[in-house]
Amino acid sequence: MNFHAAKAFILDKLERELSHKLAYHGVHHTLDVLYTIEELCYLEKVTPYEELLLKTAALFHDSGFTIDNREHEKLSCGIARRHLPGYGYTPNEIGLICGMIMATKIPQAPQNYLEEIICDADLDYLGRDDFYDIGSTLFEELKAYKVLNSEEAWNRLQVNFLEKHTFFTRTNKKRRSPKKQQYLKELKEIVEGYEKS
């Protein structure tokens, strides 16, 4: 596996081909997931080999946005299957990587430990200090794609999403869940205010 060459290839592709409308799903998000994977691999004591597979999946997981914002996970797997053999990845490794990519589809449904790690890395911000800052970029993106148009709709969506979301790894249950619950409480109070007006 030539991870560094694969990383250089996909980051260049994302830089060149991602739409400027992707305020949330830009290269910065891919790198955020990559760095979070590194943290989680250290804290969860993942083997170096599994960490390389996870990091590759992180780099490719949103590459499908270079084609379309719908079904992007499936498109991301297509990109991984097309390009990773050229970097020495075996069909079995690519299968594991695609499993991880597909696990990030909302609602998340990881089938194994590595898929749980990438799911937690992908939505790590839900329990971090930058929750509102990152959330605002997702709101901008959803407005740009005409999925949502009001702050009220956005806040209702966030409450619904946070209520259903769960962290999977021992690490993120401990370090991210408490703050996520605090944000859910804050957003519920905002949404209750809409119902009274």
Topology:
Layout: H1 3-17, H2 27-43, H3 48-60, H4 72-83, H5 91-103, H6 113-122, H7 131-144, H8 151-164, H9 170-175, H10 177-196
Helix pairs in contact: 1-3, 2-3, 2-6, 3-5, 3-6, 4-5, 5-6, 8-10
Q: In a nutshell, what does this entry contain?
A:
With 197 residues, the protein is an all-alpha fold.
What does this structure look like?
The chain is mainly alpha-helical. The chain has one domain (3-196): Orthogonal Bundle (Catalytic domain of cyclic nucleotide phosphodiesterase 4b2b), CATH 1.10.1300. The chain has ten helices and no strands. It has helices at 3-17, 27-43, 48-60, 72-83, 91-103, 113-122, 131-144, 151-164, 170-175, 177-196. Helix 2 (27-43) runs antiparallel to helix 3 (48-60), helix 3 (48-60) crosses helix 6 and helix 4 runs antiparallel to helix 5. The radius of gyration is 17 Å and the shape is globular.
Question: Could you name the key traits of this structure?
Answer:
globular, mainly alpha, Catalytic domain of cyclic nucleotide phosphodiesterase 4b2b, 197 residues, 10 helices
CATH architecture: Orthogonal Bundle
Count of runs of 4 or more consecutive helical residues = 10
Q: What is the CATH domain class?
A: Mainly Alpha
- The sequence of SSEs as H and E is HHHHHHHHHH
Averaged pLDDT: 97
Round the Cα radius of gyration to an integer and report it: 17 Å
Helicity, as a percent range: 55-70%
Distance between the termini: 58 Å
**Structure summary, number of beta strands:** 0
| Global geometry | globular
CATH superfamily grouping: 3'5'-cyclic nucleotide phosphodiesterase, catalytic domain
The helix/strand class is mainly alpha
Which fold name corresponds to the CATH topology? Catalytic domain of cyclic nucleotide phosphodiesterase 4b2b
User: Could you say how many structural domains there are in total?
Assistant: 1
Strand content: under 5%
